Amino acid sequence: MIEVAGLVLAIVGIAFAFETPRSKFLTMLGWRTSASSAATSQGPTVSALSGHDRELAKTFRSLFADSGLFREYQQHDFLLPFRAKATTPLYTVVETWTDEAHYFTHPELRLKQAAFIKAANELAAELVRYTVPDGRGYVSVITRDMDPENLPAHVRDEAKAIDAKLPAFLQSHEQLLATCNRLA
């Protein structure tokens, strides 16, 4: 009898350890979760996001959306110099958001986050490959010894390669941000 009770407690513990089983378990009990239908108003409502995910979403928003950098990336042509400080959040995502502490636990957010990190990695790789610091706080595909009026074709191609990575980065950022906002 004690073994059965222990097994039941273990199952209930697992149900509450992960978002999807927890939601299903609470729905089974007749409690409404934010992920379930709002048609019933019985029982307590469970938040769609864990405290960890809410804090991580806040940190994510601060990197690009709240700081105005999203707009800066959106409006930039990489044939022109780009503020070096504007690349810091991008490199932060690439270098530090691949550990467990920076992963969302909510499955939908984690999926959107994976797409965002992939796009951020691709954009960062192109920036590292094709830009150089200009000594005035910017990075550029144009080196100091080049004449901006007579750029070689490969420099224009390098800028286009960076620009080509922007749509996936911007779209994945918008999708993750929208999902964070919807679930918050």
Could you name the ranges where pLDDT drops below 50 across 5 or more consecutive residues?
4-10, 29-46
Q: Major sheet: size, sense and barrel closure?
A: 3 strands, antiparallel
Terminal CA distance reads 42 Å
- The secondary-structure class comes to mainly alpha
Strand content: under 5%
Biggest sheet: strand arrangement: 1-3-2
Rg for CA atoms: 23 Å
- Total helical elements: 7
Q: Taking all residues together, what is the mean pLDDT?
A: 83
Helix-strand sequence? HHHHEHHEEH
Q: Name the shape in a single word.
A: elongated
The beta-strand count equals: 3
In which range does the helix fraction lie? 55-70%
Write up what this structure looks like.
There is one protein chain. With 184 residues, this protein is mostly helical. It has 7 helices and 3 strands. The protein has helices spanning 2-17, 19-28, 51-63, 69-74, 88-96, 107-130, 153-183, and strands at residues 82-83, 132-133, 138-140. The protein has a 3-stranded antiparallel sheet, with no helix packed on it. Strand 2 (132-133) and strand 3 (138-140) form a beta hairpin. Helix 1 (2-17) packs across helix 2 (19-28), helix 5 (88-96) packs across helix 6 and helix 6 (107-130) packs antiparallel against helix 7. The radius of gyration is 23 Å and the shape is elongated.
Any descriptors?
184 residues, mainly alpha, three-stranded antiparallel sheet, elongated
